[in-house]
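Work package 3, deliverable 3.1, input record:
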Amino acid sequence: MGRQPDLVKDVIVVGAGTMGRVWMDTIARRGDTRVSAIVDLVPGAARSAARERGWDIPALTGLDEALNLGADMVLNATVPEAHLDVSSAALRAGIPVLSEKPVTPTVHEALVLAALSRLTGVLTAASQSRRYSAGIRAFKEALAGFGGAAQLHTRFFQNPRFGGFRDQMEHPLLVDMAIHSFDQARFLLDAEPESVYCEEFNPGWSWYRGAASAEAVFRFEGGSRFAYTGSWCADGLTTSWNGEWRGSAAAGTATWDGETEVLAQRRTGPAASVGLGAESEGLDAALEEFVAALDGGSDLSGEIHRNVWSVAMVEASVTSSRRGAPVSFAEVFDDARQAAIARSDREVAELLRAGDLPFAS
Ligand SMILES: NC(=O)c1ccc[n+]([C@@H]2O[C@H](COP(=O)([O-])OP(=O)(O)OC[C@H]3O[C@@H](n4cnc5c(N)ncnc54)[C@H](O)[C@@H]3O)[C@@H](O)[C@H]2O)c1
């Protein structure tokens, strides 16, 4: 099924909703990737996405039929609940998968997928598009120049009136949004979390059924702390959709407004604006990294064994909030491993029992 690295890569896009369509255009923008088939279980959805783009390609409702056509990669842009089934089927067919976030809704499903990826030797990764921007790169470099942040904060305040399923979710902010900030913190600290204490609540004026606000403090390996303050029902003075950030390091402090303004101040010196680079951002950058990995590149930041930590930050925060006590990531992964073994076939369960997931990639 694999194609030569120098040829155009065929991509099957699964899920022709909002993000699936954005991905189709992202794939088409590159000279070395093209959409070779579209799948959506809603009849007509794949066909209309292809027709809108003037593409004469297979537009199907059945995933197996598409996988049988062969491809160099699958782009999984289905709803989170379908991520494990779609990605597993592709891996078993020998086709690498780049998945929209969350790679799976739960840690135990992510461990199943990680084990399957290892068993089949086929690559899978999540696209966490908010870790690729000129602003976050400049912020990270400024902090690195000061010795690396030991205290990192973000404040995320937005007020969307989505209507629909998010208004009914039990944990709308933590489960549907916070993974972006949590993944950004892992990127900025270049480390993995050890424990979290989180409180979730729903302000009296909230238009959500579940908890629309949260305060969480993570301890990372090496002792650094990441504090997350967020709300999805904050009218007035909203932050950017990336939140606003501050990092304190041994030799100074840097801030990022979540968009293009990065400021840095060394212990003795004036505050100065930091210039931004011109590398690709967002979905384009996530795809670029994945294509490079298919061609033998090694630094795939959303690779499943690494990305599972971002999924775990969400799950651990929800557990801590329910319990009213700190939660360790060792416990989250132990529980998830047991749940993953219980639902897996013999070969996958054996790998999971071997015990080195997710710690080695
Ligand atoms: N990166 C971002 O900033 C960002 C923004 C929005 C959504 N997302 C993520 O993108 C994913 C898709 O979200 P969306 O807003 O496009 O949703 P959507 O509901 O607009 O589209 C999902 C599509 O997947 C299809 N689908 C569901 N199960 C399927 C299956 N088993 N096989 C084939 N098709 C299936 C649905 O029919 C639908 O057309 C989610 O994981 C979401 O969290 C990411």
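The chain has a mean pLDDT of 95.
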